[in-house]
Amino acid sequence: MVELKMVSFVFTEMVVTITMMMMMMMMMIFSLAYAISSSSLSTDEGKALRSTGWWNNSASHYCTWEHVICNQANSVAGITIFNSDKELGELSKLNFSSFPNLVDLQLYNCGLNGSIPQQIGTLTHLTALELSFNNLTGELPLSWANLSQLEFLILSNNRLHGSIPPEFGKMTNLIYLLGSNHISGYPS
After folding, report:
1. What percent of the chain clears pLDDT 70, i.e. is strictly above it?
2. Which of the chain's termini has less CB crowding within 10 Å, N or C?
C-alpha cells in the first residue's frame, strides 16, 4: 500500500511539474508573440512618421522626438505640432492606418494644404483633432462618422465648405469649432 501511495505521489508530482512547464512555455509564447506584434507596430509607426519628412531626427526612436507622444507600450498616442517653421504640405503624407492607438492629433498652423483624407476615419480611438489655421480645402469626410470617441474637433481658419454630414450626429461627445470656414448645418 505504501508503494502504491509513493507511485501515486510521484505521478501527481510529475503531472504538476509538466503542467507548470506547459504554462511557462505558453507564457513565453504569448510574450514572444506580443513582442513580435509590438515590434511590427513600432516599425510601421516609425516608417509612417519618417515618410512624411516632417521630422529631421530620424536616427533616434520616434518616441523621443519632439511633437510625438507615445503610450507605455511605445505606440504613438499623440502627434502635436503647433506653428511649424516649415510647411508640412499634404496631410495625406501621414499614413493614418499605421497609428491604431492615436488619441490626439493636433496640427495647428503647420502649412497643411489640400483636402482632408478619408483615412482619418480609421483612427477610432481619436478624442481630439485640431487642424486649425492651415489651408485645408474640401468637405468634411463622411468617414469621420466612425470617430465615436471624438470629443474635440477644431477646424478654424481653413477653406472647408459643404455641410456637416447628418451621420456626425452619432458622435454625442463631439464639440464643433469650425470658425472661418464655409460649413453649414448641424447634425441631428
Report:
1. 74
2. N
Rounded to whole angstroms, the Cα distance separating 47 from 4 reads 64
Residues paired with residue 79 on neighbouring β-strands, in sequence order: 68, 105
Q: Is the pLDDT of residue 26 over 90?
A: no
From CA 159, how far away is CA 86, in angstroms rounded? Answer: 20
Q: What are the C-alpha distances in Å from 125 to residues 86, 94, 105, 131, 135?
A: 28, 17, 11, 17, 25
Answer yes or no: are the C-beta atoms of 94 and 123 closer than 8 Å.
no
Contact between residue 149 and residue 172 where contact means Cβ atoms under 8 Å apart: no
Is residue 109 within 8 Å of 88, Cβ to Cβ? Answer: no
Instruction: Determine contact, residues 167/147, Cβ cutoff 8 Å.
Output: no
Structure confidence at residue 184 (pLDDT): 83
3-state SS, residue 138: strand
